[in-house]
Design a protein that fits this description.
Layout (H helix, E strand, L loop, with lengths): L6 E2 H8 L6 E3 L12 H4 L11 E15 L2 E8 L8 E4 L3 E8 L8 E3 L25 E7 L4 E6 L11 E7 L9 E9 L8 E3 L14 E3 L6 E3 L9 E4 L4 E8 L6 E5 L4 E6 L3 E7 L1 E4 L4 E7 L5 E8 L7 E7 L36 E9 L7 E3 L17 E8 L5 E5 L4 E3 L2 E3 L1 E4 L5 E7 L4 E7 L2 H5 L3 E6 L2
Parallel strand pairs: 2-3, 3-6, 5-10, 11-16, 15-23, 24-26
Antiparallel strand pairs: 1-11, 3-4, 6-8, 7-9, 9-10, 11-14, 12-13, 16-21, 17-20, 17-22, 18-19, 18-21, 22-23, 24-25, 26-31, 27-30, 27-32, 28-29, 32-33
The protein binds copper (II) ion.
Length: 473
C-alpha cells in the first residue's frame, strides 16, 4: 500500500476559487444541540458573518495504524492521524467546530495563527477559554493570517502526545517562489504507550539520571513517524522529473528535535513558521518541536530516494519517507546527504522588519532552567507555571526577550499571538540551544490579549516552563 501526499498547485488554486462558498470537510453532524452549555452560550458572535471555510472535527479515541500490522490506541481528530488538513487562503475566515468525544476535557490551539483580536480562539485552557468538557462542542473562528505552514493541536496536558494534532495550511495569495506541486510532512515520535512525565539525565531520551537525579522529560519514543508511518511502510511523495515540489515540514513531536535531508537532493528553504525568507539552499535542516520549514526541492535525479529524519539526540530510530519519481521502478536508491546544515543566520525575512528594529521599549531577561538533582519541574526565572508571575508588558511596546538556557537540553520557545524577530527572520518558535545557549527575540505588542509563552517540549511545558503574557488595549 502506498500513501501519497502530493497535491498539484493547480488543484489548490481551483479550490481557492471556491472561497466564496463554504467547504465542508470531515463528517458533519447535523444534530442541533437544543440545550447548549453555559460555555457555548457565552461564545462571541462571529464577527464577519459566514466563514469562508468550515470544518468539523471530532476528538476521539481511535486505532492508529503506523505500518502494516502495527497499530495502537491513540486519540485523534476524526479517527485520522495526522488529523485532517485544514486549509484556507490567507485572509479568509475559518470556522472549526470541535466535538469532544473523549473522556477528558480538551481544547485546540491554532499554532501559527496570530488571531488578531481573537485571543479567545487561542485554545489555552484556563487562560483563553474554559476547556471543552466531554460530550460538548466548541466553535473556533479565526482569520487565516499569516499565510504559511502551520498546525493545530490540543493544548490540554499531554494530549498532544496522544496524537491530537493536524496540519493547518494557509496559502499565500502571491507566493515569492515558484513551484509545481506541494506535500506536507508531519514529523512525530512513535509513542504507543500512554504519555507521562518521566525523568532523564538531560541527554534527551536516556532514562534515569545519574545518582537518581534528573530532569522531567518525555518517555523514550519507539521510533520516528513521517505522516504517521514507520519506515517499514513509508509515506511516499510523488514527483515528476523536472518539476519543483514544495515540502511543508512540521515538527509535531512532543520532545524530539529532528534533522531532515533527502539523499542527493537540495532543500531550498523558503519559509519558516509561515513567513517567507530569501531562498537558501542547504542539505539538511534542524527542526524543533512546534517549528515549521518550507523547502522547495527540484526533481532532477530520477529514482526513489529516502527522505531521512533523525532525532538529533539519536535517542530513537530514524524516520523515513520516499521521494518517488514518476518513472521510477520503486527500488530505493541510496545516495548521499551533504553537510550544509541550515543555520539561523541563513534566514532572511522577505517582509520588512523595520518595526522590530531599534532599541526596545522593554527588555526582559528570562533564564530557562531545571532542577538537576531530583527536581520535578522546569522553570523560567526560577518559577514553574502555574505558580509563576505573568510577564508584564504594555500594548504598543517593542518588547525584547533575552533568553538564556542554563540546562543541557534544547528549549523550543513559542510565543502565542505574535511572530517575533530572531536574527533576521520572523518566527513564532525558536530553539534556545542547551549548555548556556542564548537567544534574543523582539516583538511588537500589537495584539492585546492573554497570550501563552512556553517551551514546546510538551513535558517541559507541563512541568513548568511556561508563562502568561497578558496585556490590554
Ligand atoms: Cu524545554
Amino acid at each position: 500500500m502506498k500513501d501519497t501526499y502530493t497535491t498539484s498547485r493547480r488543484d489548490l488554486l481551483k479550490s481557492s476559487a471556491l472561497a466564496g462558498g463554504t467547504l465542508i470537510a470531515g463528517c458533519l453532524d447535523t444534530t442541533i444541540d437544543n440545550d447548549p452549555s453555559p460555555d457555548e452560550r457565552e461564545l462571541p458572535e462571529p464577527q464577519y458573518g459566514d466563514p469562508d471555510r468550515e470544518y468539523q472535527l471530532s476528538a476521539t479515541e481511535s486505532e492508529v495504524i503506523v505500518a502494516g500490522g502495527e497499530s495502537y490506541n491513540g486519540w485523534t481528530y476524526n479517527g485520522e492521524y495526522p488529523g485532517p488538513e485544514i486549509r484556507a487562503v490567507e485572509g479568509e475566515r475559518v470556522r472549526v467546530t470541535i466535538e469532544n468525544d473523549l473522556s477528558e476535557e480538551t481544547t485546540i490551539h491554532w499554532h501559527g495563527m496570530v488571531l488578531d483580536g481573537d485571543n479567545a480562539m487561542d485554545g489555552v485552557p484556563g487562560v483563553t477559554q474554559a476547556a471543552i468538557e466531554p460530550g460538548e462542542e466548541f466553535v473556533y473562528e479565526f482569520d487565516a493570517e499569516p499565510a504559511g505552514t502551520h498546525w493545530y493541536h490540543s493544548h490540554v496536558g499531554l494530549q498532544l502526545d496522544r496524537e491530537l494534532l493536524g496540519p493547518l495550511i494557509i496559502e499565500e495569495r502571491d507566493p515569492h517562489i515558484e513551484y509545481d506541486t506541494e506535500a506536507t510532512l508531519v514529523l512525530d515520535e512513535y509513542l504507543p504507550t500512554e504519555p507521562r512525565v518521566e525523568t532523564s539525565n538531560g541527554n534527551g531520551g536516556g532514562m534515569g539520571g545519574m545518582g537518581g537525579g534528573g530532569f522531567p522529560d518525555a518517555p523514550p519514543a519507539e521510533g520516528t513517524l513521517i505522516n504517521g508511518r514507520l519506515p517499514d511502510e513509508p509515506a511516499t511523495v510523488d514527483v515528476e522529473e523536472g518539476s519543483r515540489i514544495r515540502l511543508r515540514l512540521i515538527n509535531a513531536a512532543a520532545a524530539a528535535t529532528y534533522e531532515i535531508g533527502i539523499d542527493d537532493h537540495d532543500l531550498v528553504v523558503t519559509h519558516t513558521d509561515g513567513p517567507a525568507v530569501e531562498p537558501v539552499p542547504v542539505d539538511t535542516l534542524e527542526i524543533g518541536p512546534g517549528e515549521r520549514y518550507d523547502a522547495v526541492v527540484e526533481a532532477r535525479s530520477p529514482g526513489t530516494w529516502p527522505i531521512q529524519v533523525r532525532a538529533v539526540n539519536k535517542s530513537t530510530s530514524a524516520g523515513r519517507a520516499l521521494l518517488d519519481y514518476d518513472q521510477s521502478d520503486g527500488d530505493v536508491t541510496e545516495g548521499e546527504i551533504g553537510s550544509r546544515q541550515l543555520q539561523l543566520s541563513d534566514l532572511h525575512a522577505i517582509d520588512s522588519l523595520d518595526e522590530y528594529r531599534g532599541e526596545p521599549d522593554r527588555t526582559i531577561d528570562l533564564t530557562l532552567s531545571g532542577e538537576m538533582m531530583g527536581g520535578d519541574e522546569w522553570t523560567i526565572n526560577g518559577q514553574a507555571y502555574p505558580d509563576a508571575d505573568p510577564i508584564s508588558i504594555e500594548e504598543g511596546e517593542h518588547v525584547r526577550f533575552r533568553m538564556a538556557n542554563r540546562s543541557p537540553m534544547r528549549h523550543p520557545m513559542h510565543l502565542h499571538g505574535h511572530h517575533f524577530v530572531v536574527g533576521d527572520a520572523l518566527k513564532d518558535t525558536v530553539i534556545v540551544p542547551g549548555h548556556m545557549g542564548e537567544i534574543t527575540i523582539d516583538f511588537v505588542a500589537d495584539n492585546s490579549g492573554a497570550w501563552f509563552f512556553h517551551c514546546h517540549h510538551l513535558y517541559h511545558m507541563e512541568t513548568g516552563m511556561a508563562r502568561e503574557v497578558p496585556y490590554e488595549k
